[in-house]
From TrEMBL:
Protein name: Cytochrome P450
Family: Belongs to the cytochrome P450 family.
Source organism superkingdom: Eukaryota
Keyword Iron: yes
Transmembrane segments: none
Chief place of localization: membrane
Listed cofactors: heme
PANTHER family xref list: CYTOCHROME P450, CYTOCHROME P450 FAMILY MEMBER
GO MF annotation list: heme binding; iron ion binding; monooxygenase activity; oxidoreductase activity, acting on paired donors, with incorporation or reduction of molecular oxygen
């Protein structure tokens, strides 16, 4: 739930791109061949009409009953993309995250340094603009 909520608020891939290969009508909109479309993952992940009034807050509990329980349209949750080009490393990435997090948490506790400035920035992927200084304490 913590990983899912983190990927919701801070999706490493902020958007995905598609190019229209032939003229299509999508809903009521005609999209001409050659149009480049940006699908804004981070925007979809924070829309209040999809996620509720606390859409901008970090609340892992929203995933207590899975993605369908967390939002109105499960397709709007797409940290790994959606459709035929869905991330092939999705399950590997999720397993790796769980293993690494549980190994760290079994040996250490950590908290943010007071010098941390919250400023997520989209470069190649979404990252903390000024880095993330942590206080790390070993469990004995
Ligand atoms: C948290 C980690 C990761 C995130 C958030 C992520 C996100 C994404 C997203 C959003 C796409 C879709 C791009 C699109 O639709 O245009 C994608 C595709 C892809 N990802 Fe990941 N990814 C992650 C980890 C990985 C890992 C660990 C691997 C490889 C071991 C991987 C390999 C790929 C590949 C090969 C594609 C292209 C699939 C295709 O176009 O058919 N990703 N990823």
């Amino acid at each position: 739930m913590v990983i899912q909520e983190t990927l919701r608020l801070y999706p490493p891939a902020v958007f995905v791109l598609r190019e229209v290969l032939q003229d299509i009508r999508f809903g009521g909109v005609v999209i001409p061949k050659g149009t480049s479309i940006q699908i804004p993952i981070s925007t979809l992940h924070q829309m209040t009409d999809i996620w509720g009034p606390d859409a901008h807050e970090f609340n892992p509990q929203r995933f207590a009953t899975g993605i369908t329980g967390a939002c109105k349209h499960p397709q709007a949750y797409m940290p790994f993309g959606i459709g035929v080009r869905t991330c092939v490393g999705q399950h590997f990435a999720m397993t790796e995250l769980k293993v690494v997090l549980s190994l760290i948490l079994s040996k250490f506790s950590f908290s943010l340094s007071p010098s941390y400035r919250h400023s997520p920035v989209s470069r190649m992927v979404l990252e903390p603009e000024h880095g993330m200084t942590l206080y790390v304490k070993r469990h004995y």
